[in-house]
Amino acid sequence: MTEAAIRIDNLRKTYAGGKIALHGVSFDVPRGQIFGLLGPNGAGKSTLINILAGLVNKTGGNAEIWGFDIDEHPRNAKRSIGIVPQEILFDPFFSPRETLEIYAGLYGIPKPERRTMELLRAVHLEDKADAYARTLSGGMKRRLLVAKALVHNPPVLVLDEPTAGVDIELRQQLWAYVRELNERGTTVVLTTHYLEEAQELCDRIAIINHGRLIANEPTPQLLSKAQEKVVEVTLDRDIATAPDSPIFEKAELKGDRVIAITYHKGKVNAGEVLTALNGAGYSVVDVSTREADLEDVFLSLTSDKAAA
Ligand SMILES: Nc1ncnc2c1ncn2[C@@H]1O[C@H](COP(=O)(O)OP(=O)(O)OP(=O)(O)O)[C@@H](O)[C@H]1O
Q: 21 CB under 6 A from ligand 1?
């Protein structure tokens, strides 16, 4: 049986006050993967993670973690997931060793089975085992949060915006450790605003926008959409419909004589696009080009959905 690490089915959340944060989101996180959950600010990522963590009550739908329904088997569901939160929150008077011991106690892990020093070694904090948490640097605190999320040895680790306020060196260390964990069998879910960040690590990326899932694809497939470029041309006369060509991914009328042509920069260049237009009898009087960014990927995905 190939069960998903996380299965989300028609998940809905309306906050008191009427704000709909999730409009019925469904997707599976396959076991063994590094999975990116992307979306702009306010898209609903934290709401989704907080529902999985048992911190927010869902309005409707279902969620399973490692085969355990969060309503029917909340204890097992919770034991199957470790969450590294966005915010750094510790009791400043406990040392990293004490922090992990306390958490292990909360999970009811007997002393001989605890992995406190192993975890501290893994996040390079063994020499800080007995320092006060308040004396740790920001990066060290974040690594301690990762160790804390792993205390109960969960098969699924969720990192919520792990690089917010994190410098490049630490980010690389964090990624190396996430890769290592994944190679040893942990399924990893990463939420982020940044496509770039997910691109480096994730096998698969889902995007949510305004509480709706707008993509869920293997990373290379999604990135090929970001390989699109747009050339906007102004013609010498009005036209009624946008011209078509096999080398265009898409051509849209932006005004009576302005066309936005999307092309794949790995296949053609702007010059070839203009040559195709000339060959079809159009005279171009002005041109501008721009790179497609995540915003374009979002837009093209939403409009693909609308057209489907
Ligand atoms: N407790 C709450 N009460 C009312 N509305 C909320 C609450 N928490 C979140 N929201 C709203 O729900 C929507 C989704 O928020 P959420 O925090 O899940 O987004 P996000 O994708 O995690 O964003 P960010 O990347 O900024 O954390 C937003 O419009 C937000 O304002």
A: yes
Strand-strand pairing, 204-209 and 212-218: antiparallel
d(Cα 177, Cα 159) in Å, to the nearest integer?
A: 12
Domain extent at residue 235: 227-292
From CA 226, how far away is CA 249, in angstroms rounded? 12
Shared domain for 56 and 147, answered yes or no, is: yes
Nearest CA to ligand 1 atom 28: 42
Helix ranges (H only) for 159-284 are 168-183, 195-201, 219-225, 270-279
**CATH code at 134?**
3.40.50.300
Phi, psi at residue 18, to the nearest 5°? 100, -5
Asked whether this complex has an ipTM greater than 0.90, the answer is yes
**Nearest Cα to Cα of residue 37 among 61, 80, 6:** 6
Closest Cα to residue 66, out of 3, 118, 113? 3
Please give the distance, rounded to the nearest whole angstrom, from the Cα atom of residue 21 to the centre of ligand 1. Answer: 6
* pLDDT tens readout for residues 158-182: 998 877 666 777 778 788 888 989 9
